[in-house]
Structures are given as structure tokens and as C-alpha cells.
Design brief:
Function: Catalyzes a mechanistically unusual reaction, the ATP-dependent insertion of CO2 between the N7 and N8 nitrogen atoms of 7,8-diaminopelargonic acid (DAPA, also called 7,8-diammoniononanoate) to form a ureido ring.
Protein name: ATP-dependent dethiobiotin synthetase BioD
CATH superfamily: P-loop containing nucleotide triphosphate hydrolases
CATH architecture: 3-Layer(aba) Sandwich
Strand content: 15-25%
Radius of gyration: 16 Å
Subunit structure: Homodimer.
Cofactor: Mg(2+)
GO cellular component, one term: cytosol
Structural class: alpha/beta
CATH topology: Rossmann fold
Largest sheet: 6 strands, parallel
Shape: globular
Bound molecules: adenosine-5'-triphosphate, 7,8-diamino-nonanoic acid, magnesium ion
Amino acid sequence: MEQLFVTGIGTDVGKTLVAAILTEALQADYWKPVQAGLTPTTDTAEVRRLVRNPVSLFHPEAYRLRLPASPHAAAAAENIRIQPEAFQLPITANHLIVEGAGGLFVPLAPGFLLVDLLAQLGLATVVVSRHYLGSINHTLLTLEALHRRGLPVRGLVFNGEPNPATEEFILQHTGVPVLPPLRPEAVIDAAVVSHYAEVYRAWFEK
Ligand SMILES: Nc1ncnc2c1ncn2[C@@H]1O[C@H](COP(=O)(O)OP(=O)(O)OP(=O)(O)O)[C@@H](O)[C@H]1O
Ligand SMILES: C[C@H](N)[C@H](N)CCCCCC(=O)O
Ligand SMILES: [Mg+2]
């Protein structure tokens, strides 16, 4: 069974889109442990919108915070302190896709970063890198942080217009496996996710 934690080089890089593709490809369950920002939608609702298979279950978030901000600040705004013990992996016999919030060093509580939650859960990662000027540095920092903690990378996803110079450097420098890339899409809907899910299913079966 695949139990994968989707992280990224920052916020808005495409983690939810990748999580939806993985959820559809593997007919996996999905879990977003910390949701900061409830409108116009949540990541769980977005993945539910993008996935068509009847098997996937959507597990409730451990924290649902109103403010679209760093989780430690969104929690503080509601007089909540995020507790490491509150995070228990959902019990399921299915594949499980877990989506982080922002990047690895996003604070959840004083002294408790998202990467600490990842280490506590003990999952392999899928890392999403979106192409922008500065993304090489953000990607290498993310991969080094995982490597230093002994957290395995199942695959790296490049999102955006192809950038061979960037992609080749990162892959040669780190040696991580690469998942199929995502290209800019005019709309993000279930049909687009279904297309990528086919490609991802083949990658996992190879
Ligand atoms: N390849 C793409 N083509 C078109 N739009 C994209 C693509 N990848 C991501 N997007 C859009 O970019 C926005 C940010 O992506 P997404 O919500 O997946 O980011 P995220 O990393 O999950 O952010 P968060 O840290 O808030 O969870 C969304 O509106 C998403 O639909
Ligand atoms: C609200 C946003 N969409 C994410 N859920 C949280 C992003 C936190 C980023 C914090 C930071 O790195 O400065
Ligand atoms: Mg997301």
C-alpha cells in the first residue's frame, strides 16, 4: 500500500492538484491534516471535486482553521494551539494520500513545524516543485531538509512550462526519482485530473 505525504517547495505550487491526481490514480483515500482557510473552498472539497472514482474516502481534517494564513497564526487567531498528539493517521486498508500545508518549515505551533508532523507520521513524500525564478533554490532546500531527516522521497513533480535546465540540474544534483510533470492547464477539472491519473497509474505500475 502507498501512504504518501504530498509536500511542496511552498504554498500554491500545486500540491492539491498533485494530491488529486494521486488519489484518482491509486483510488486512494485523502487526508489534509491542517486546513488554514475555509473559503472559497478547502483542499479536501477541491480533491473531492476533481476525483471521480467511487472508492476514495475523504478523512476529516484534524484542524480546520478559518484564516488563510500560516497554521500557527491561523490557530492563534482562534485561541487554539495545534498539538502534535492530535494527529493520528486515519485507519484505512486503502492507499492514503496526505497533503501538507505550504512548505516543510511552515510552523504549526511553537517548536513544531510541518516537517516534524511528517517525521511523526513516518510517511514517504511526493515533493511538488513549481517553475519560477528562485524555484531551484527552494527545491534543493526542501530536498536537503528531507534528506537530513532520513525522510524518503518517492518522487518529485515539476509543475509548469517545461524548464529542462532547471529540471536536469535538480535531478542530477539530488538523484531523486521524478514523477510525470504537470503542464499549465486552461482549466483544472475532473477530466484533466483523470488524464494525468492514467499517466501516474502507469508510473506506479512500472
Ligand atoms: N498545472 C497547472 N495548471 C493550471 N493551474 C494550476 C496548475 N497547478 C496548480 N494550478 C492552480 O494553482 C493554484 C494553486 O495550486 P494548489 O491549490 O494545488 O496549491 P497548493 O500547493 O496545494 O497550496 P496550499 O499550500 O494552499 O495547499 C490552484 O488554483 C490550482 O488550480
Ligand atoms: C493559507 C495557505 N493557502 C496555506 N494553506 C498555508 C501557507 C502557509 C505559509 C507560511 C509561510 O511559509 O510563510
Ligand atoms: Mg493545497
